[in-house]
TrEMBL record:
The keyword Transport applies. This is ABC-2 type transport system ATP-binding protein. Residues 5-229 form the ABC transporter domain. SUPFAM superfamilies: P-loop containing nucleoside triphosphate hydrolases (SSF52540).
Length: 298
């Protein structure tokens, strides 16, 4: 596996506010990474640091093998971190020609990139006539003109209608399938679930989870129980190592499993302790519930 980006113990402070707090993760070639977190969790700050537009306070990051200067490395990076900005009175193709001149890359790839984002048939339309979704797609085409190793997108579907959102996500998947590594910041769990293979979950600048998107769903579920002696029920369950934590919810006790356990085993265990249940349901949290639980303000 070759490394695209390595971040080690990165911290960014704005006065007394710590926007990014001792963050570490590695980006390997060919994967699609999501930085997922609620607004203000430090996603844009993290992207800004690695793109050299925000100064870090502490820690390190390096691009590729670590022997390339950030300045040179960024020539192999495509990024969209703010709203697309093009000349309104110029056409799509004229805007991209200008980007090629500024970035000093060949104009040969303009048609190919417009095709990829579904704008080839609108190449001679003025930018001002484009919908927000089309503007965002043109920005993606623009960021790809240098055939980057990695494409970085900050909240790429913000403000778009459902159809526009769908188009952008399909384009991102297509770009990834062609081998370009992708790093995408989003506050939307379903976006990360649909598009990404890997995720770093941030809350107040702290990484809460880093790994496969599928691995996020590693919870073993929870049991909702009721008995005529709730205290005895809780005490009995506390003696069983399969349970991690407990929560009282109205008349019910909710017990979270930290290892797999069959409901019939739980029932038998309690029965042996002389506890009879009047209510017993086993359920697994949805990914959304797990995410909300993980990121809720504490
Ligand atoms: P996200 O992109 O996840 O919404 P940001 O990285 O934009 O989060 O912001 C993280 C935190 O840093 C927030 O509390 C935000 O208010 C703060 N912040 C961001 N930029 C600045 C700045 N230039 N000056 C002061 N505080 C900032
Ligand atoms: Mg942001």
């Amino acid at each position: 596996m070759s490394h695209i980006l390595t971040i080690s113990n990165l911290t960014k402070k704005y006065g007394s506010l710590t926007a990014v707090d001792n963050l570490s993760f590695t980006i390997e070639k060919g994967n699609v990474y999501g930085i997922l977190g609620p607004n203000g969790s430090g996603k844009s700050t993290t992207l800004g640091i690695v793109l050299n537009v925000v100064n870090k306070t502490e820690g390190h990051f390096h691009w590729f093998d670590g022997n390339t200067s950030t300045h040179d490395a960024l020539k192999k990076v495509g990024a969209i971190i703010e709203h697309p900005n093009f000349y309104p009175y110029m056409t799509a193709v004229q805007n991209l020609q200008l980007v090629c001149k500024i970035k000093q890359v060949t104009e040969e790839r303009i048609s190919e990139k417009l095709e990829l984002v579904g704008l080839l048939d609108r190449k001679d339309s003025k930018f001002s006539s484009f919908s927000l979704g089309m503007k965002q797609r043109l920005a993606i085409a623009s960021a790809l003109l240098n055939n980057p190793e990695i494409l970085i997108l900050d909240e790429p579907t913000n403000g778009l209608d459902p159809q526009g959102i769908h188009q952008i996500r399909e384009i991102i998947k297509k770009i990834a399938s062609q081998g370009t590594t992708i790093l995408l910041a989003s506050h939307l769990l379903d976006e990360v679930e649909k598009v990404c293979s890997h995720v770093v979950i941030l809350r107040k600048g702290v990484s809460l989870y880093s790994g496969l998107v599928d691995g996020m769903n590693a919870s073993h579920g929870f049991l909702t129980m009721q008995s005529n002696d709730m205290e005895a029920l809780k005490q009995a369950l506390e003696q069983n190592p399969a349970f991690g934590s407990f929560k009282r919810q109205g008349e019910y006790l909710i017990a979270y499993l930290k290892q797999p356990m069959d409901p019939s085993e739980v029932n038998e265990f309690l029965f042996q302790k002389g506890i009879v249940l009047s209510h017993f349901v086993k359920r697994k949290e949805s990914l959304e519930e797990q995410f909300l639980e993980l990121t809720k303000q504490k």
